[in-house]
Amino acid sequence: MQKTVFFRFQKNSIYLLCLVFCFTSCRSVLKGEWQNAKTAQNVPYKISESKTPIKDDSGNQLTIVYLENLSFERIGQNSNNQDVNWLLNQGYRVVELDYKNHPNNVPTKINHEIIAINDSIANGSFCGLNDCSVLQSYVLFEGYRLARNLPYFKDDPTVYNTLKEYNIGDSLNMDIIYPANPKKKVPVVLSFSYSNSYATFNEDKNQLTNDNKNKRTFLPYTFAGFNDSFLEGAPAHGMAWAIADHPKYAPWGSGKPVGGKNDTYKSYQTNPDAVQKVKSAIRTLRAKSDALRLSGNIGIYGFSRGSTAGSLAIGDKTVSEFENAGFHLGVSDDVQAAALGPGVFDYTQIYNTLDDGDKNLELRCPWAWGDLKNNRKLWESMGASYLVESQKTAPTLFFYNTTDAPYYSDQIKHFKTKLDSLNVPTSTLVDYGEGHSIPQKASDLEVLYNFFKTHLK
Prior knowledge:
Number of strands: 15
Order of helices and strands: HEEEHEHEEEEEEHEHHEHHEHHEHEH
Low-confidence stretches: 1-25
CATH superfamily of the largest domain: Alpha/Beta hydrolase fold, catalytic domain
Strand content: 15-25%
Distance between the termini: 61 Å
């Protein structure tokens, strides 16, 4: 009997060892050390390739940089192996960075690591890899997973009329980064990208292509271009995050009304299209909350054109034309807080000082909406200030540099004054850097994270 049991144990042990060897071999694991060029500190890495890799339209591989052994609270309860294997099965290449005992293994300091990772991928060299997608690669904290390219609205090609071949609307999409199997529900911060997605026609192929679809995390224009680590660093502070296509589904410098002048909409968006999309995105995110174990509390984080878009979410005024389009009608589109960087919140203010950085708006807005004097109500309906009616508007933190284009400071001054007059809680983070930029210092990022933690409980 003992011999038989021992023999079975041996057989099972050998079988398990074979499975482990096979699994490791199938993952094609490559190990090394990544040197953060900004800190000159090394972090051990392990690269695992998917058996079924997904690539962008340039042939580069979607890559997840997965940060492990972090010193702050882990909310997702799966093991790292479980979540890494899940990512591999989705088709992602996974680069695991082990931050055990690393000096930057603390909240806000980890943001410097995120910036360096994104910069390296954008520059075409990360952990010896030169084929990581700059369109859709992501930094994830341990315990987090990714829901990618979730539709939140179907675009209407007749709004911006930028491509005659584009006559059937594309889906505008979002990505949600959430803790898997969480021990508690968490809030989520949503941002509208300041990189635009849009339809593209290839004349050589005589067909529409996907070249500029799902461009919301295009690193040279977003996270790497502005060293923006806020969203990807949010899990260190107990939050999930999401990023959605900007409502203007067109190249930023283009767009015109039906029969209008070319490039009428250069450098700005228009309602009701933009606000309908913003509200639909919030409803879609909230509708996913139960399945993803999110709390249902949503904050908005916006910068530049993403701030202009995101600001349309904070007001409490109900306008039927703005509420009746998109997905998940009937689900609340309220948000609980917003941190807004430089943006445009009231187009009727653009002539306060002429040629102070908003020359495109001063010239072209009348092409779309007529002159301001005779069409003021229409002009008002284009900005976020129009939707602010009472104290029920979401608490708002404004961040900006006084060395940025002057019209940004003017826009924030007038919008904040209106919120303050209604006793909406507001605060500011001013001169954290130079020009048109995003907070990067640990102390400034802490202000932003603490604001959301206070209002998204």
